[in-house]
Amino acid sequence: MCISSSEVGPGFQLRVELYSSCTVEDFSPGALGPRRANRLGGSVGCSSGKKIRAAFESAAVCGSSGGNVEPGRVSPPLSPDLSTLGPKYNLLAHTTLRIEHVQEGFKTHDLSLAATEDNPFWLPLYGNMCCRLVAQPLCMIQPMISGQLKVKLGEDLNCWENVYGVLREQSLLCYQSQEDLESEDKLLLVIPIKKVGSKLAKSYE
């Protein structure tokens, strides 16, 4: 399973919740058992499952009234068993992932239990889950900032040149002018951005 979002701030929180559902074994005769109905509603889409269950309920009502409901008359109300068809989900456990959980590999995260073994919907849990949380900075897919700046192109410490810089991905791209952005051939300098600073630059002629 993969969950993705395109607009997430640095203070985001991803809450993961685990639910379970009870399955009732007994049901009134002559209609679709709730165990099968629950499976049916879970195996198809939510909207389709509701429509299918509604059709079974309607058929059961017609069968109980002999199928002779006169026009203008209201059908008999559904029995309590029919009106409660469908799974009821209960929260078992949850955890919250944040920016500090972003890393290259998979990691085990502890679950906070929201139910106990005494609950009828309880399922045996290991108490943790394993997943991988990844994040891509916005600067990796689009330019973040640009403008005029001075850079040293030669060995002479007093020799500085005005360039137009664009911060994109993990590099500061330097052009002679803003008009040169359309052509990669006119790139003058690439200054890599590193955690410990930047000392090396690649010159393009």
From TrEMBL:
Signal peptide (residue range): none
Coiled-coil residue windows: none
Pfam families named in the record: Anillin
GO biological process terms on file: actomyosin contractile ring assembly; mitotic cytokinesis; septin ring organization
Domain Anillin homology: 6-103
GO CC terms of this entry: actomyosin contractile ring
InterPro entries: AHD, Cytokinesis/Rho-signaling
Record-linked PANTHER family: ANILLIN/RHOTEKIN RTKN, RHOTEKIN
Protein name: Anillin homology domain-containing protein
Source organism (scientific name): Perca flavescens
Organismal lineage: Eukaryota, Metazoa, Chordata, Craniata, Vertebrata
